[in-house]
Design brief:
Elements: E1 13-15, E2 20-27, E3 30-37, E4 43-47, E5 52-59, E6 62-69, E7 83-87, E8 93-99, E9 104-110, E10 131-134, H1 137-153, H2 158-176, H3 179-186, H4 192-204, H5 212-218, H6 223-234, H7 238-253, H8 259-265, H9 271-282, H10 286-292
Antiparallel strand pairs: 1-4, 2-3, 3-9, 4-8, 5-7, 5-9, 6-8, 7-10
Helix pairs in contact: 1-2, 5-6
């Protein structure tokens, strides 16, 4: 993936790590990872990344185990062969199993920022729903073709692999996009789950510095798209919203703590800078505001 190659930590991680063999191929916006178990030993697996993950389980049966995708109930299904799973960017995927067969599974890592779909699709901004152990003939057929290209040609036929990845992107939109949230995004704002996740993250880290890039990563958007969508949804830029929430928290604390204690609690290193920010936001100093509480 140009300028965004999948790093080792962005692959599905297996324990024990040496249990599987992996074969890779790469196209713009998509990387294939064909995994074959060497032994029929128990293992677990985990994944959470800025990339979407599509899983095609060609050969996977287990005597015991469970699989979970963040946002869905945990499954203990034993026969996984022929099943697909989709893990949207930012969602955690975890499982363990005692296999009955040598596992063969294809993983496809999809970069929402560089997959070569038309700009008007706004693929990087869509809220795609997680799906666990489903079957879709069109997507399965594409996964088989991408696997064949990986195993036979090593991804050398760039244009063909890229064409498959584009069709795959459209198919993922077909099965996974939330129509209502996409209408919201078409107007330029964050989706409902993105608003909830980023506002909760800010509340949990009010006293910390929150760079734009870190906030954008919380909802799996580029900083540029995130800043624009955040302002559309909240009516102000992320930094101003963060400061506003700090001041609101300070108001709640001023009835119980000293001005210095409140300044530290909401992330200001100096009382003077806290007092100045408080006055700009409320028109009164912290001490003046405290007197109104009595």
């Amino acid at each position: 993936m140009p300028n965004s190659r999948v790093s080792n930590q962005d692959y599905v991680q297996f324990q024990p790590a040496g249990l599987v063999e992996r074969q890779f191929a790469e196209w713009r916006g998509l990387q294939a990872d064909i995994v074959t178990a060497r032994e029929r030993d128990p293992f677990d697996y985990r994944f959470k990344s800025q990339y979407h993950l599509l899983i095609a389980a060609e050969h996977s049966e287990r005597d015991d185990g469970e699989t979970s995708v963040e946002g869905l109930p945990t499954s203990t299904l034993r026969s996984l062969s022929g099943k697909l799973t989709f893990v949207p960017a930012g969602h955690e995927f975890y499982g363990w199993q005692k296999p009955l067969v040598l596992t063969r599974v294809s993983y496809f890592y999809i970069d929402p920022l560089t997959l070569p779909l038309d700009d008007e699709m706004r693929f990087s901004e869509l809220e795609l729903r997680p799906r666990l152990f489903f079957f879709d003939p069109e997507i399965w057929h594409l996964a088989e073709k991408l696997k064949h290209e990986t195993m036979t040609n090593g991804g050398r036929f760039r244009h063909y692999g890229e064409a498959l990845s584009i069709v795959l992107g459209h198919e993922l939109i077909r099965i996974g996009a939330d129509v209502q949230s996409n209408r919201v995004l078409a107007k330029g704002g964050l989706s409902g789950w993105q608003q909830k996740r980023v506002s909760s993250h800010i509340e949990e880290h009010l006293a910390e510095d929150l760079p734009l890039s870190a906030l954008a990563e919380v909802v799996s958007l580029s900083p540029y798209h995130f800043a624009r969508a955040f302002k559309h949804s909240f009516g102000m830029p992320p930094h101003r919203y963060h400061v506003t929430r700090r001041i609101e928290r300070a108001k709640a604390l001023l009835g119980e703590r000293s001005v210095t204690e409140v300044a530290i609690a909401v992330g200001f290193a100096e009382t003077s800078s806290f007092s100045a920010a408080f006055r700009r936001a409320t028109g009164a100093s912290p001490r003046e505001f405290r007197r109104t509480l009595r």
